[in-house]
């Protein structure tokens, strides 16, 4: 339904994290991206060349992708004109915002007149049942995070790529708009009616062959005051055999909430294992993925080594150093899991925590 | 918007828990309920006299309330005819199902032709923001449960009634369709888009005077594989100062899931306190409410006394014995809280657990 190639519109974004939909498409579907368009005031870039709508149309662009996100997900009316220009140049519009393009009369009417599509990829077309918690066949891995936007989708995509390279049967399951844009399918779990969070997640990774892995993209964090409910429903519905804990260096508070506390990696492991056991008592931690982009490569590797020793788990920066170490761990089907009982032992060793914070 | 009095339609229900919307209206808004209507196969009753739609209309009924619920919340097409009869007799239709009456063309058209309302009380009309976790003024109490349908709404309404009788400033905040029917306002939290669970809950109990109590109706259970996400978002958004733990005797598995495990009261206390601390570090347990309707009054009181001693907390059946003991505890503003550390101590004392199970 989504036609490539894309022109990625990033508006007047000033926060690199807010253009993660555009950046994700560039990083994971580069062949589908022709260029980016921004306007005055924008201070970030995906790295693609700046091209106009007219240029993009001449180059064969089929879709104009709104590549930015904002808390609340409402489309600022100031973007209506640029969207209309894209429609008039023959492009479909792809949006991952909560507010539906199809609910905006002027856009809806113009698209209809021109025979163009308005594609609200965040809004599920299917209907869901409530969850059951019943055990499904096949294996599942879920990425979980200390916070939002710490690299859960990238880690999941890197895991799928590495597992497929190792001839393992693995499929990435998208749970957010960016993942859906990259894979062309999935369910934006934060847009599902809350009664169906777990049920929708169950339908996203149905029964499969015993050696098949679903690599399910995590959302939010159990420690985020706004989004923990989504994270918990996703965790229960995924019934993961394995979780991979994702973290980004240099965070001092939860994304968007300056007064919030940031959880430790140990807290995150314990909270997630405790909750995950409700639908899979054998859940284990397969590894830790750290976004070290805020420090040098050497420093990042030093931190990953220290975390790996501390938790006796594979720890890596997926983009800089790959995820083979995590996949190898997974492949060996470890019987010994980090359990919630390690909490106090870990809490006493505060040096590492300080190191991660300072990095 | 909802006009009284009501005719309560309970269809062919065979499970008392499935007509809790009708029963709630009878128990808490008796003056607004004229009678009930059921059809062949129905084995339960609210206790109100059986009357026909025509009788109800003659008696002045203004609304035909769909007083049953089902998992999934879809309206069986077999009820379209009886709804049409009610419309033709001049009644509005009130539904608490997920599926919207206004989305069913034949009903929507007939209602429009006749000038009647189709009121989908589960579907929020307002729009919400994502949560912030910021501290709000005033006090909040949230009822939490070992399971769905264990008495959280009844306990909340009983607390409001008792607190108002004691001249305390307290307001019940409805989070489900039945509570909304009773109070005429609220937000059906399980029908909110999942990104906004906490944000919607925050808007439901805004800043208030320092001595004011919001008594927030809980939903689901942190131990329910289908609905824990809703419960967690509601807990974080409520930022409760106090929680009251609700439980019904004689449950062997989570509602609707025969293969699930049932949590202990101790588990439920610990899980909820641990999670609630994210947005209110001073949260405490104000008491335990037990639905003892499955045993004799004497046996119920014996069990409540045993649980009270075990946890050193007020424990009562709200309907049989009132909630004054809990409100008194609340009023004394206890400084000593049950904390998550009591878990192992409680787990070792298994006699009580066995007693509660056997009861």
Structural descriptors:
DgcN-like_N (chains A, B); DgcN-like_C (chains A, B); DgcN-like (chains A, B); 5-stranded parallel sheet; Rossmann fold; DUF1611 domain-containing protein (chains A, B); 359 residues; 6-stranded parallel sheet; 2 domains; homodimer; alpha/beta
Structure description:
2 copies of one chain form a homodimer. Chain A has 359 residues and is of the alpha/beta class. Chain A folds into 2 domains: 6-120, Rossmann fold, CATH 3.40.50.720; 139-358, Rossmann fold (3-Layer(aba) Sandwich), CATH 3.40.50.300. In chain A, 36% of the residues lie in helices and 15% in strands. The first copy, chain A, has 14 helices and 11 strands. In chain A, the strands form 2 sheets. Chain A has a 6-stranded parallel sheet with strand order 7-8-6-9-10-11, with helices on both faces. In chain A, strand 10, helix 10 and strand 11 form a beta-alpha-beta unit. In chain A, helix 3 (80-88) runs parallel beside helix 4 (105-114). The longest helix of chain A is centred in the last third of the chain and has 15 residues, at 297-311. Chain A is globular and about 55 Å long. Chain A starts with 5 loop residues before the first strand and ends with a helix. Mean pLDDT of chain A is 91; it is low at 333-352. The A-B interface holds A 71-73, 98, 129-134, 189-195, 197-199, 223, 225-234, 236, 254, 256-257, 259-260, 275, 278-279 and B 71-73, 98, 129-134, 189-195, 197-199, 223, 225-234, 236-237, 256-257, 259-260, 275, 278-279.
